[in-house]
Amino acid sequence: MPANSTTNIPKPTAKPGTGQRPRDLLTKEEHLELLRHLYLARYFDVRLIKEKRRGRLTGTLYSSHNQEAILAGSLFGLKSTDWISPIHRDMPAFFMKDLRGKWGSDDRMSMTVEEICSQVWGKVGSPGRARDNWSHIGSRAARIIHSTSMLAGTIPVAAGVAYADRLDGGDAVILTYNGEGSTAQGVFHEAINFAAVHKLPVITVIENNQWAYGTPTHLEYPLEDFARRADGFGIPGWVADGQDVFDVYDKISNAVEYARSGKGPSIVECKTFRAYGHGDHDDDRAAKYRPAGNIEEGRKRDPIAVCKAYLVEKGFMTKEEAGQFAAEGKGAPQATDDDFPPDVVAYLKRGVEYAIKSTLPDAAEGAMWVYREQQ
Ligand SMILES: Cc1ncc(C[n+]2csc(CCOP(=O)(O)OP(=O)(O)O)c2C)c(N)n1
Ligand SMILES: [Mg+2]
């Protein structure tokens, strides 16, 4: 099958025959809301890096800077009752799930920003009560599959959750996030094959940020598009512009509709670029193993700027309004709170202050959940 085969790719389904894309059905407010979600994900990243530099936070940070459109665009296409499985680079997803139309409401199928910040700071309010590193969390109530460090390890879990939901008569779609490097794992193939055979509603998002630690994509896979992994399973594989939140929304919405209508799993590859090192422990090395031109090229289409340009073109904001909060192109050292909408800053502040003020768990808790007490 040729590399760019479209054999298994269904047509966009917003309005058959009209050429309309899912985004064309969004209101002006929803368009603007997507920009706010991008700011929120970006501010989480900027704020944590600043906190660490100020000495108020320890531990490794895995930045999602420059990859925010994948999180915002994909989550916007889901229902509250759908499931997600984020991994190390998707931290904002844990508190951004079910945010669409619900800004300011705590009545969401999501984890709270207080819980997530408590996890990052290792405080008593964290879901794991400070036992584990920052992304190793989940919530059955919020329908977030527990993240682990074993790459692609959440896809078989997602397939199981999808199977169970179907047996229970549910209509949930399960969206798993994975780096392109994880597609080389055996379990990636075993799990998607199982989902394909049973037509399970599992969408595998491949966040192709061009690097898996220090390995570039041409040493990971011989074809240009990781979405072509789908061909081997006989399922659709779409490629989205991961810098464009609306393109991600379109492709994910198509995949969601395909899955929810019983047709089965699919893959959506989102092309992006890892802005920093693998984690902040790798920043210095990454600046050496990645040529300067590669970094400049990869970061030149900031998702916030791409989104604003589209909103201006649509007439949904003026150029002056687009220039008001200029977070695009700025890393933690350059960005200030004035570069973000005040409600975004306030939202994060709530979580950060809560975590900083919270206590550490009592040391006596150490053996809790480890041994079963004798009855
Ligand atoms: C099964 C497995 N092998 C190796 C590792 C070590 N490891 C952690 S992250 C990573 C690179 C991941 O790259 P990619 O999947 O592209 O995700 P990214 O970090 O770029 O978002 C590696 C090799 C691991 N966690 N799990
Ligand atoms: Mg990668």
Taken in chain order, the helices and strands follow as HHEHHHEHEEEEHEHHHHH
The largest pleated sheet is described as: 5 strands, parallel
Structural class: alpha/beta
Bound heterogens, unique? thiamine diphosphate, magnesium ion
Estimate the strand proportion. Answer: 5-15%
Helix proportion: 25-40%
Write out the strand line-up for the largest beta sheet, numbering strands in chain order: 1-2-3-7-6
Q: If helices are DSSP runs of H or I spanning 4 or more residues, what is the number of helices?
A: 12
Rg result: 20 Å
| Shape type | globular
Measured between the Cα atoms of the first and last residue, the distance is: 61 Å
Uncertain runs are: 1-12
The overall pLDDT average reads 94
Counted beta strands: 7
